[in-house]
Amino acid sequence: MTTIDATTAPGRPGGTDTTPVLQARGLVKTYGRVVGLDGVDLELHRGEVLAIIGDNGAGKSTLIKCLTGAEIPDQGEILLDGKPVHFKRPQDARTAGIETVYQTLAVAPSLDVAANLFLGREVRRKGPLGSVLRITDRAGMRERARQELRELGISTLQDVTVPVENLSGGQRQAVAVARAAAFGSKVVVLDEPTAALGVRESGQVLELVRTLRDRGVPVIIISHNMPHVFDIADRIHVQRLGRRAATITPKSHTMTEAVAIMTGAAEA
Length: 268
Known about the structure:
Mean pLDDT is 87; it is low at 7-16. The longest helix has 16 residues, at 199-214. By secondary structure, this protein is of the alpha/beta class. It is globular. It has a 6-stranded mixed β-sheet. The protein has a 4-stranded antiparallel β-sheet with strand order 2-1-4-5, with helices on one face. Strand 4 and strand 5 form a beta hairpin. The protein is built from 9 helices and 10 strands. It starts with 21 loop residues before the first strand and ends in a 5-residue tail after the last helix. InterPro entries: AAA+_ATPase (IPR003593), ABC_carbohydrate_import_ATPase (IPR050107), ABC_transporter-like_ATP-bd (IPR003439), ABC_transporter-like_CS (IPR017871), P-loop_NTPase (IPR027417). Keywords: ATP-binding, Nucleotide-binding.
């Protein structure tokens, strides 16, 4: 198995801290006789984009679910900033600073952009209005939403009071990514972020990923779109039959070679 050292991998932003922000060691997850993960290792460093690719049934989704608290691994350990963590539910991972944007997006269509950014984390007004009457600080949330969108360079969402149901697919994806960026202090995980998007909107989402990386936020992206993977990723984790088949980079391997490793047509 070919594994590229993350501290020297081509394309990885420079830095002296070699401790992974997020690391998995020997993760095992079974469902009866079905093996979802078979001793999987993974390392994610600060300021990098790690793509996870693999054929259907390779264990990509199971791996992400274990890393984000949706599943509990049967064996192995997960470390955040070098310290073991034990996520029993997604909220545990969110509290630790790991935000996930699933393919289904999980946005509330009837709510506006600002309300979606603070969904489940609504800010209440100061004083008795917030503590007793539990009135939300709508103006404050909208101002912070505008600021977050500006910092991410999202120019397609000028009005944060627009209901999400009136937005295009790419704009909805931008809202979901912005929400993850606003609260994902450690890691942002994106599951098929460009699926069902057009060329222009896909490009905008990939630019958002670059912005997150430039801000020092490491990103895990799961995708079947190989051109997008090779365009955005610093390193590529190849998953096959529940195991890590290889960790490569866009400079060390071609797309054809990556697909060959992924399908088992070639050894890493």
